[in-house]
Model the fold of this input.
Amino acid sequence: MANPTQTIVAFIGLGVMGLPMAKRLLAGGFDVVATDLSADAMEAFVEADGRTAKNIVEVAPVTDFVITMLPNGQIVRDALLGDMGFAMSLRTDTLIIAMSSSAPLETRGLREDLKILGLDLIDAPVSGGARRAEDGSLAIMVGGAPAMIEKARPLLKAMGSTVTATGEIGSGHAAKALNNYVSAAGLQAACEAILIGREFGIDPNVLTDVLNLSTGKNHSTEVKLKPFIIPENFTSGFAMALMAKDIETAASLARQLGKPEPGLEHAAALWKESLERVGKAADHTEIYSYLKVARQDR
Ligand code: NAD
Done:
């Protein structure tokens, strides 16, 4: 790959994750031009000495890589191939890196459609949240042609501390959805244990210590219970709507493979109902509030 300073990256989606990820690319010397529907998000990137373009199509002919960090795969498809789509104006040697958490089979379909335009795409979703996006230590899982993964590696290394090739196109998105199902199952179990322990008179902080010193330890017991859930401030920075989407993606993948998984179906239904009750603006750690009320009503 050419020198980072001569590599132009069009970055679409400067939200909770996209803004710090785009800043990591800037810090790595890449020439990043970013866009977002939100003027505030664009302003935040300008404050970090980044370049923005309200109409990203303007930079299409000089773009070497496109990175999308939008809420879901449908929005990614619209941004690339919709009415105002960006893809038609790109050079055929531009590589598109889809970093949102999306549905794997939709990603395969998107790549087929982009191929008609002579373009290639890899899927490279991330795990780690805003803090790890800020310090460039995201876990990145990437699916697609090995040569394209190698081409993208310098950019991915600027944003993540690990880059794990998962196989064919869409496999990064599948791995991400399955990871979030496992993460959500651990979070749900931790919240239920805190609620039951509390009723029995065990201090939630003490029970958290017990879990973290014992075999019940998981990511949620380590980094979510004490900072966000026990004090009920619910400020982890990862939206419940995004978690519910990821679990539904995992459940729907199992269905598409012809064999729904009962535990996964149960989790998808639980998070869907929780989202309806707690509201679209909720943080995903508010699953605790939902479980608390549901327990009281039982
Ligand atoms: P977010 O809602 O904070 O950011 C999305 C951004 O996209 C917003 O700034 C929005 O204005 C912008 N946007 C929406 N449609 C657009 C369009 N058509 N053109 C340009 N900009 C548009 O979401 P996020 O938390 O940054 O998550 C992004 C993706 O990363 C999601 O797929 C999510 O599941 C995944 N993810 C999030 C986290 C997390 O902790 N927040 C962690 C890992 C993965």
Observations:
- The domain at 4-168 is CATH 3.40.50.720 (Rossmann fold).
- The mean pLDDT is 97.
